Amino acid sequence: MLEATLAGVAKQTYPHELVEIIVADDGSNPPVDPRLPDHPSVVIERQRDEGFRLGAARNLGAHKATGEVLVFLDSDMVPEREWLLEHMRLHHNCFWALGCGLRRHVERRSITWSDVEGADRIRDLFSGDEIREPGFIVDYWADHEDGRKDSSRIWRVTSGGNLSIGVEAFWVVGGFDERFRAWGGEDNDLGYRLYQRGVMVVPVRTAMPWHVGWGGYDSRAMDDSRRRTREILASRIPDGGLPSLGGIQPIVPELWIRMLADNREYSDLKNLAMSALSTGISAVISFEFSESSPVMKTAQAVFAVDSRIAVGGPDAGQDEWVYAPVVLHTADTTWESPQFDGIVQRVGEGALAQMTVHHESGSRSTAVLTRVVEQVRAGLLAESEALRRFGHEHVSQHNLGRRRRSSAIRGG
After folding, report:
1. For the whole model, what pTM was predicted?
2. Is 244 left (phi over 0), alpha (psi -120 to 50) or beta?
């Protein structure tokens, strides 16, 4: 099957001198030794057999790549000749995009290098066969206007078997999370992190390989694996559609509160932390100081026991919570718990770029939808265009506290 996949890749219409082919072998025993195509650049990279490590294998291949765009294809798929061209058409026009190719499934499992070599079109090999498509993915793109409408859950259809992404964007988020050690989830996790960094996630409908075998998407044997994967994703992606983790603190919070803490008393920081961490949502808080002070040292000593609180310089908490869908920059410590719920609901309900909150004390805070901010930074939208498209709302702190929180928060 791998040889058939390689034969299909070798027949691509995209210029061969611009392409390298890397086979990432996840510890096969004996090691895979396929016939390799006559191609300017084709190599096999291997990793030790330490169990199922799909994410690590993909990262291994990505580390060895020298091109500007990574295109992932599973070894049970055979692409039509224009498959790579259609992926690259996207990246020639948008450098900060994640291209999600689709697929068609056929039952037939015996396909060889010679079959692919001799076929003018791959579809001819399956003439008369039953053809299926993963209905959930097809329906999602149709219902959400290819990601233009309510795209906060677009991570659900980022399938890693046929995916393209610029090298820079891929490594900005750290590539695939290698802690996934069972089937599924590592591609959804990557899609979420890329989306939160402002990457445009779009379907590439014309990049359509043939998946030989029905796959696991409609297999009862995959049910237990799916449930376990959803539990793992629930710890990484703040989405009301994933299982509740009860009192377990997720890796990615729904709300990140960032406060410049210079000129504040320790009692102010304590009161704000107590309000923030007693909400009905998963929240974290970073107290950021421009320089060391007695208050900062006291806060570090006291709050060190709670992983939800970071105390330090301007980058406090940055690495841990950068994927939080809602970020509240505030200079006010008079927040009450229900108001934080209101912040997440307002930003999650609509497409707000910013929200200025007027406090009774006369101060103002701004809630920022992380996705939009990162798009502006990436240069995909000018700041004025982002505000025109996504809006800027003024609300009072008092009214925020009166809003009811929906059962499924869509943070971004």
Report:
1. 0.87
2. beta
